[in-house]
Design brief:
Layout: H1 3-14, E1 18-21, H2 35-52, E2 59-61, H3 65-68, H4 79-94, E3 101-106, H5 110-123, E4 128-131, H6 137-140, E5 149-155, H7 162-165, E6 168-169, E7 179-180, H8 181-195, E8 199-203, H9 208-218, E9 225-227, H10 237-246, E10 254-258, H11 260-263, H12 275-289
Parallel strand pairs: 1-2, 1-10, 3-4, 4-5, 5-8, 8-9, 9-10
Antiparallel strand pairs: 6-7
Length: 293
């Protein structure tokens, strides 16, 4: 099954296009103990509750940095990496039909990019990965594995993204004479996606004018979009869904992500006694606002 078909299938099965970020912060996790034990206990209880209540997002997105920061390789301690492996195993058990996007934002010269692709797809067995486009096609295309997803940074949700991404380009494309750099990147992404199914874009929900420009450009094309920035960063799920539909973009190919807003909405530790109820309420709310029908 192609990655685009996998997205469509999981959206129809779950009934939504929510992507749940899995970025554990040690101080916000309940109970005591080491990082791996606390992550295991937290997500096992949360996933079990979600499964029991029939609540499933349409994708999961662990950011690798939140895990490997807890490794101490020179001390032969890989607690963070092992915690990520545990979480991925739990996802395979609880949500076997839901895509997993490894958020690692790789991108290097060709051979190094291939190594990073093998890390994501073979070592971690992820379904998709995030990639930087800055070094061009020989940096991006090694990630184009068959039936895997590649989300290329297009217009990101962070405030500093405008520094480069909104600069004006002067090369002409499709009748445009002056246009922001993120449109030039969108043009490249669309051309790569035409040759390699599964290539998509990261487009932040915090910049709605830019998001509308980009999804209009992708409408009618098979270009999956990963949309971070909803929740804690201030983006609106309703506004994103409206923009996708107004652009005639196939919403089933989109994934609207929230991370800390779903897994630790209290922001700073320690976790409250009703942490599980708080998480479930936030997850259900985002799922309800990203319905495909």
């Amino acid at each position: 099954m192609s990655y685009a078909d996998y997205l469509i299938q999981s959206a129809e099965y779950s009934g939504n296009v929510t992507c749940m970020g899995l970025d554990p912060v040690l101080d916000c996790l309940p109970s005591d103990g080491g990082f791996r034990d606390r992550v295991n206990g937290f997500f096992e209880k949360l996933f079990r509750r979600m499964k029991l209540e029939g609540v499933s997002p349409a994708a999961f997105k662990p950011n690798i940095g939140y895990y490997v920061i807890n490794d101490r390789p020179r001390d032969e301690n890989f607690e963070g990496s092992m915690a990520l492996a545990d979480v991925l195993d739990m996802l395979s058990s609880f949500f076997p039909s839901v895509p997993v996007i490894l958020d690692s934002k790789r991108g290097d010269i060709a051979k190094s990019s291939l190594n990073y692709a093998i890390e994501a797809f073979d070592s971690w067995q992820a379904d998709a990965v995030t990639v930087s486009p800055y070094m061009g096609d020989d940096s991006v295309l090694p990630f184009a594995f068959e039936n895997k997803g590649v989300y290329i940074l297009n217009r990101t949700s962070n405030p500093g993204g405008k520094t480069l991404q909104n600069m004006l380009a002067i090369d002409r494309i499709e009748g445009h004479e002056h246009y922001p750099f993120y449109i030039a990147v969108a043009h490249l992404i669309a051309s790569w996606a035409n040759e390699h199914e599964g290539i998509g874009a990261v487009v932040g929900a915090t910049n709605m004018d830019e998001l509308k420009d980009i999804v209009r450009y992708y409408a009618g094309k098979v270009v999956p979009v990963l949309i971070p920035g909803v929740g804690s960063q201030g983006g609106s799920a309703e506004a994103v869904m409206d923009a996708l539909r107004q652009a005639s973009y196939d919403v089933r190919l989109a994934r609207i992500n929230s991370s800390s807003g779903l897994t630790h909405p209290w922001k700073k530790g320690p976790a409250p006694e009703d942490w599980l109820d708080q998480c479930m309420a936030r997850i259900k709310d985002l799922v309800s606002r990203t319905r495909v029908k």
